[in-house]
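Handout, section B. The chain below has 614 residues.
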Amino acid sequence: MSINEDDNNKAFDAKTMIAIVLMVVVITVGMAVQNHFFPKQPLPVAPQATTAPAAQAPIQAEAPSLAPAAGATVAVVETPDAPDRETTHALSTDFFDALFSNKGGEIVSLKLKQHKEDGVPVELLLPRNGKTDGFSIALGGAEALPIEALMTASRPGPGLIEFSRTFFAADASGELVPFTLKKRYEFHDGDYMIKLSVTIEGSNGTVPRIGDGEFAYSLKIGPQIGPTYEQLPKNADWRKIVTYENAKRKVMKGGTQVSPSSKASWSAIAGKYFAIIVLPDATPYTATYTNISADGKPVTTSMAFSRPALGASVQTDVFHIYAGPKSSRELARYDDPTANAYKRSSDDLEGVMEGGNILGWLETALKWSLNLFYGMVGNYGIAIILVTILVRLIMFPLTFKGSQSTARMQELQPRIQELQAKYKSNPQKLNQEMAEFYKKEGYNPMSGCLPMLIQFPIFIAMYALFNNHFDLRGASFIAGWINDLSLPEAVYTFPTINLIVWRVSAIRILPIIYVLSQLMYGRLMQQQPTTGQNAGQMKFMMYGMPVMFFFILYDVPSGLLVYWISSNILTAMQQLVINKVIHKKRLAAAAAAPAPQLKLVPKKGGSGSKKGRK
């Protein structure tokens, strides 16, 4: 059973039923006496009860308002100041529109005002089976059901909202002792972090005996985070659990529920562009992470932080919760105490972002360049083209040298073919002769491959950038066609067609333009026809590779294809200039070379003889 499903099938044993009946009789008689003798101060009692499984301690609660953990002994009595109906309470900052319910004191809606989805603010908390469980409290461990008791709401100050309720828990002697549960939320303008304080206060210095014996309560976040979705296509979005422990980022395996023994600095439910990150205090909580999929999409991605049994009559636990975009600009603020309202530092929240591999420095440099050009032109598509121009200019010396090397190889091709024909039956001798030939000619066969090899790290860094850069979310290039550079473009979509080796659900134009640009680039790079045993390899490289990459790149972010197409076109233009320069150098070298002179060799017989004169 998922931790988000209600358990309505608990059995009642005989002893539990007798205990409940006796308690109902006692409370009912007490109510009648109090109403008769003290009519001005009525105290209504809600005697409905929920019991634990068989062979466990009885539980009495206001059902279904309170569903305590198995093993807890909790009774709820409606005090005169308790609400009699569910109410909602709104709180707004310049970043959030938050909506709370006094049922359990939960956040039932958390919208990000600065970020839109289909023209409306992004909803960061998604319900399941009609329940949101936005920072709910359950008495007991991770499997306990959230408290749904109606709580009193108050506004202690700007950006603050507090929910409180008095409950009764049995002490060691079985006597019901009151305790108060408080949930206090703190918001600040210009800050994506929320501070949640959970206070449990016993009466007269007593330590509340709540929970299941091992855990007092669990704070739950889930069952899912936004934005809303019908499905999560490849590269479009995802949901995963990310933790940060000892300055290392860990991603929990999907389709599981785990409770690691180690304690993380923070834990997050992360999507492609948004995340909820929980930073607990120093209390040794037991974290439970759930990431369960159904019908090919993650339906439950939740976290629970279970607190050990209480050891003091008054206990306040503090959770700082980041709920916002996966943007370096926002996440980095919690490394600088002067940049956030809570004076936090060294939280390393940027660890929730994708990347951080060996090419992270290159991705960072490309991102910086992209943002620089976007600040100038205001269009990320044009900014991508400008970044491509910058990359091609930086790489021009290598490209020129590589083109010279390719031209030199074509000049040496006849000699190479002679050696290949001469030593075709002796590969070892051929390799030796080829090495000596290259050394004699001063030619490095790898020099022509260097520009191509350098392209691959740039391509990988660009792929990571377009797949994860928050600012590219919803960034349009050409309205009506390329509306989101972080997603594949499409001119026509249809239900997915499974072609065994390829699944297609849209007609896209950019992959076709890419193939044409790659063929044009290949033709310009091949300055003269290649013959011999390498001809087949060259034809495959020229025609086969673009076709293969057409299928590989069909569903990649459109920004990546804009970069590659621009790169091919710019490289082709560079190649035209380079070819002219190389051609002029060849003509100049041919003109400067001395003309061959013919020598007349007299034949035998001497010039004076008849035979010689002939």
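Note. Residues 360-587 form one domain. Compare this with the example in section A.
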